Sequence to fold (562 residues):
Amino acid sequence: MIALHGSRPSDELFHFHPRSTNPELWRTTVPLVVRVRCQRHKGLIATWTAIHWLIVLHAASGRAHFGMREIAEEAGVGRNELAGPGGHIQRLVNLGLIRIVGYKSFRGLREPRPLYHVDLAELERLSLDLVPEVLRDHQIDRPPPIAPDPRQLRLALVPTDDDSAADRDEPVLQRPAHLGGRDGHENGTAEPLPVGMNRGTLPEKPGAAHENGTEGWRSTSDNGASMHEIGTVTHENGTALPRQRPVPPGNQPGMHENGTVHARNRDIEGEKERKNEGESQTLTPDLLQSLITQATQAVLATLQAQGGVALTDLPASLSMIPLAPDDAEPLSASVLSLWQGDQQTPRQRDLHQLALLAAEYDRPTDGHGAYWLGRAILMADLCLSDRDQPITIVYVRRMLRRWREEGSWGSDREAAVLPLPPQRGAHEAPPLTRPAAEPLPAEAQRHPAVRAYVEALHETPNAVQAAQIAETVSDLNAWRQVLTDWQLNGWGERSVGKMLDRYQKSASPGGGVDVPPSVALIHTYPGISPEQRDRWIRKFHAAATPAEKRAVLARLEQEHPR
Fold:
């Protein structure tokens, strides 16, 4: 037996109505443009559905950052399929189906998490534009009609006592309950007679008006609607009619469909008032600009409260053509346009890194950091296009660093010889010094490979090194490419033996496939303490590219020679 007494805290879920929530929470639909652009790829569609559903699910808290594990579990795909430049998330961003509006950092995480946004209204608009093309592809002449709501299809076929209908053996359509009966009353909202009351037993209300000998009464409510309280009024089939609720004036029996003259006049006056009110609220350019400013400030305040970085935080110098120094040629496009190139949508993280680079080099260039960043992008694209390699932020950063160290902004020549490292302490071994170079023979000086070495590194090899270069190098273009890569990567150690090894790998039938660097070299490196070993291991893992990892190993051998 259920207890009726005793205090019990109210359950919010008991009073929760699912239809009052966002329909996308319980009606997970996929717009047509998502299916078309994803080319029915199940992984991409599942990833988009998962991100969109998570955003709707956490709409109350405003959470828009989700980890790879959470998205992978919701989409039913592997985490390795989501991450990376070729992962599902970046492909959806490139297709314009989701947007990354910022990033949020967390303690303990190496990289910040992106803030996702799905513009469902824009996707639905694009989907509507695709409908005619899809119908033509499926060879459908005309689009199907809109399916009505199932709740509006409550037309019941009930028998009637009408003799003509009975003779024809035809059913009669009964109006739905919410549309009212044939006599104008709302049958669906009628209340039955009280228990124990028959015809003629209902009390007569004060001020009752008897019509046609019936014992009913009729009153008027405050809003002008008539209240039909039916007592012993009978229907044509002899049954008593129940009491009714207020009926609007336009739905009462015997009235014109447009209502009374007073109601029509009131509608006309209301239309005039609404028209005047609409004219007074016409959007002017100043009002529209103020609304846009208020909305932008609200969005920025929300992103800042959530710890995110909005895209509008990017400096205007990246989206506009920067000013060139007095003795330099101007750029033909902005930094963002130069970096975007043929890409549909660049990565938002790259844009933020470009903004940091421009701000970093503003001081040494007297405020022309964005200009030299654009020049570095053009120069890097020119250098890497011959090798069919994509341009990277790391490559552009190294080129800017070389220009700053040499003071040769915008030059395409190779870097000069790096200075010797600073003096070590008294307890450390003295640095190794290179013996004075002997003059080369005339034959070695005239060799093209040796001359290319001298022109690139601005130093003369000794007789043994010159002999090795002349004996090994047979492809001058490949040798010059090795020297160029060596200088652009900033490798300070001038080891002819390593250069020749790199040249032989690039000239081999494998096509320049380098052995990837391994951290095992640091684990087994002799002569360093455990603290130093841990520091070099962290440097190795912090390097993003194989070239950077090789540079870390080269610095290790330079600072701690075996």
About this structure: The longest strand covers residues 99-104.
